[in-house]
Amino acid sequence: MIARAVLCPYPPLLARELTGRDAVVPELHAACAEAVAWLVRDAPGRVIVVGPAPSTADWDPGARLDLSAFAPALKDGGKPDLPLSVGLGALLLDQAGYVGPRIVQAVGEREPAARCMRLGVSLAAAAGNGAVMLVLGDGSARRSVSAPGHLDERAVPFDDAVQRAVRDGDLAALAGLDPGLAHDLMVTGRPAWQVLAGAWGPGRPAAEVLYADAPFGVAYLVARFEAAGRERGGDQRGAVSVSGGWSGAAGVQRWSRRASFQ
Amino acid sequence: MDDRAQAVAPGAPGTLRTPPAPGVPQGPLHLGRTEFAPGQLLIMAIVNRTPDSFYRPGITWDEGAALERVHTVVAEGADIVDIGGVPAKPGADVPVQEEIRRTVPFIRTVREAYPDVVISVDTWRSEVGRAVCEAGADLLNDSWSGFDPRLAEVAGEFGAALVCSHAGSQTPRTRPFRVAYADVMADVLDRTLALADRALRAGVDRRRIIIDPAHDFGKNTWHSLEVSRRLNEMTASGWPVLISVSNKDFVGETLGADLEDRLAGTLAVTAVGAWLGARIFRAHNIAETRQALNMVAAIKGDLQPARTIRGLT
User: Fold this and answer.
1) Average pLDDT for residues B68-82, to the nearest whole number?
2) Which of B183, B222, B253 sits opposite A70 (nearest CB)?
3) Where are the domains of chain A?
4) Which of A7, A156, A260, B289 could potentially form a cystine with A223 if both were Cys, beta carbons 3.0 to 4.6 Å apart?
5) Which residues of A lie closer than 8 Å to B, measured between beta carbons?
6) Under CATH, which number does the domain B36-89+98-300 receive?
7) Stretch B145-162: mean pLDDT, rounded?
């Protein structure tokens, strides 16, 4: 079963070289780094990287993202390149110093929910015990008039619902996200979150939101899930200004942080 | 005279030699009733008939103000007046009839005031193209990469000139979202050259076809810088190249400059573009652009300096 999972957004600007002299949104970088460091901290058996792409396919775990597609000035040498989502996932793992086994799985942007769930089930089964998951996905890119996708009034409520579901470890709610609406709202994360829902299986995770903001009109969400019963008592780790700690022992573990999209 | 004094013969054309560009030589460009030779660097002055364009929105929304602006830009040396009724960015919808209402009467006004000025209309829609050509427009300036394929046919039918641009996979009035290219310049060339060939087949006069990389359209700042750097690959095609860089976001992002602080960066890209062979420069700041282009033309040897006596008295 999947012991831990981390949700990260995948804007190209997460690759530091792409933002020029200014290290934009350092808080986002920090939250992603913190989450991924936690994900790989206890030498997982395997890391499954899941992210949306034009089509569903698994990729060579040794492949990396070619940044020159976004910035020709950064031409590196024409290595085989990954789709942006899993490419950034691979980059985050590299930056965390993770050198263990990986599975790199792209899920098609238009895959129906049921197929995403089944993909998740089979990934978890194939990965075996001690596997963890890094799930790449964003909320809506249509949150404001200056957002890349301009303004759609349904975007903010959609993102708020996703954030609530993540905060509550409510994978059933993620499984139930409407693919058509998500596509209209330029919500890239929908298929990947549904793969996660399938992979996690029964049992609500203990969840923590480390970052939830939309500084450029695109909703970025960083969160972590841990299988109930596997948490460490009194673990205070968390990025940004998180207060409190894991509560309770058995049963549903809940972490509630007052993070909300601006 | 010693050897150094012999190196430059005043008055001799082409004496200040630039390295010859590989590829197809540039030919004459016909716009309206005027023929422009390859060495002539043309300014296309932006006159937007919109309340909400990105630069100084609404400044020429009033028709009186718009006509004043035309007087000014013509006096400052603009060769083309580019009239647009719809902003490039997303926003309030502008239906075809509204776009026509914003542009056609004004075109007639400008044509009456200036029988010979080249009138360009910034539109992607063929219905608008037809209406503005009927009103006297000479050039259809399509920034959206032939989104409406019938626009080329309208240009052919009316004997108008046509701009063939690249916008990646962007549809009109959308912003780029994580756009990526294996080779942006190759993509720009493929698209613009294909549109140029299509324009020929649609009956557009060979001397009235222009190509434009369309900085920032379907491109991030890195892509726009790359296109600027490799612009010679477009001019080598032989088609006249238009660049529209004025006050654009790639200038702002490169310099960390707000909208009102991008003139110097704009002129720098303009000068590089002129050096690499572009011939039409779409601009907000006409007088400054004219000076920058004249400087480049003089360096190239295509323009006589205004008055040189220093060291010669």
Assistant:
1) 97
2) B222
3) 2-226
4) A7
5) 11-12, 18, 20-22, 69-74, 84, 141, 145, 148-150, 186
6) 3.20.20.20
7) 98
**Is A20's CB within 8 Å of B90's CB?**
no
CB A187 within 8 A of CB A221: no
Looking at residue A255, its pLDDT comes to 32
Contact (CB, 8 A) for B219 and B184: yes
Compute the nearest-CA separation of B54 from chain A (Å): 12
**What is residue A81's predicted lDDT score, i.e. its pLDDT?**
80
Residue A12: which of B91, B178, B183 has the nearest Cβ? Answer: B178
> Comparing A239-253, B1-15, B123-137, which segment has the lowest mean pLDDT?
A239-253
Q: How much is the average pLDDT of A109-122?
A: 98
In chain B, which among 202-221 make CB contacts under 8 A with chain A? 220-221
Check CB contact under 8 Å for A186 and B181: no
Angle, vertex CA B7, rays to CA B5 and CA B8, nearest 5:
85
CA distances from B267 to A38, A53, A213, A249, B244 (A): 49, 39, 37, 66, 11
Pair B264, B239: CB distance under 8 Å: no
User: What's the CATH code, domain A2-226?
Assistant: 3.40.830.10
ipTM score of complex: 0.84
CA distance A123 to B203: 57
d(CA A126, CA B24) in angstroms, rounded, equals 58
